[in-house]
Amino acid sequence: xxxxxxxxxxxxxxxxxxxxxxxxxxxxxxxxxxxxxxxxxxxxxxxxxxxxxxxxxxxxxxxxxxxxxxxxxxxxxxxxxxxxxxxxxxxxxxxxxxxxxxxxxxxxxxxxxxxxxxxxxxxxxxxxxxxxxxxxxxxxxxxxxxxxxxxxxxxxxxxxxxxxxxxxxxxxxxxxxxxxxxxxxxxxxxxxxxxxxxxxxxxxxxxxxxxxxxxxxxxxxxxxxxxxxxxxxxxxxxxxxxxxxxxxxxxxx
Length: 253
Ligand code: TYD
Fold this sequence. Notes:
Layout: E1 6-9, E2 13-17, E3 23-28, E4 31-34, E5 39-42, H1 46-63, E6 70-73, E7 78-82, E8 85-86, E9 89-96, H2 99-105, E10 112-122, E11 131-132, H3 134-139, H4 145-168, E12 171-185, E13 188-194, E14 202-206, H5 216-219, H6 225-236
Antiparallel strand pairs: 1-2, 2-3, 3-7, 4-5, 6-7, 8-12, 9-10, 9-12, 10-11, 12-13, 12-14
Helix pairs in contact: 1-6
Bound molecules: thymidine-5'-diphosphate.
């Protein structure tokens, strides 16, 4: 039997060649990493949850006219995506101070920001994904001014969508990270939301209790990560209450 070709392996996902040109298969692993991979573990069921949650958010974005790379979910751990050229920047949107913003600027965690704030980090593990200024991005050619304007507009639309969806199920969207890619249609370039949108790359706090329902549970050893992600999925109606236990997915191929 022919073995499919692995195109890329990252910390939480693997990309394989897709069935048609211009497509890829994105496989969600159970590996969890934090602090630039200094903290590592395998958390059974995490990949299944992130695959389902990312499908839910990407489908929702596509439906409201925010273009994404997502085509369809294939099985418990895999989804078909459009291949795109990833812009080497992590785009972070913050609504409430937390994490590195609180550390860097001394703003207490949990303080609501006067407006959504967008930050860019250079995707470079060797450098620890440093925060960069728009000046750096343009000067070093990581993205053009037009790309930057489009990325900011896209990030704010994703933020509005995600804040609304989360608010509806009693969750505060504190911050999140997205990656953006370029796809070519003839001579024209279009930007799309790529990678994944899941509790691995968001901060999600219960509106009433401030309980953390995101990767900080792993980063800060606050309990079971799969319980937290399952709670998010359950509230969003993504995992039916009577679905099979997540630790033992049966449809993986
Ligand atoms: P940030 O507070 O800058 O960093 P950290 O998570 O290390 O405290 O992160 C802001 C949000 O962006 C948070 O929800 C996590 C997400 N994020 C990632 O998913 N990957 C990354 O490489 C970075 C820098 C942030």
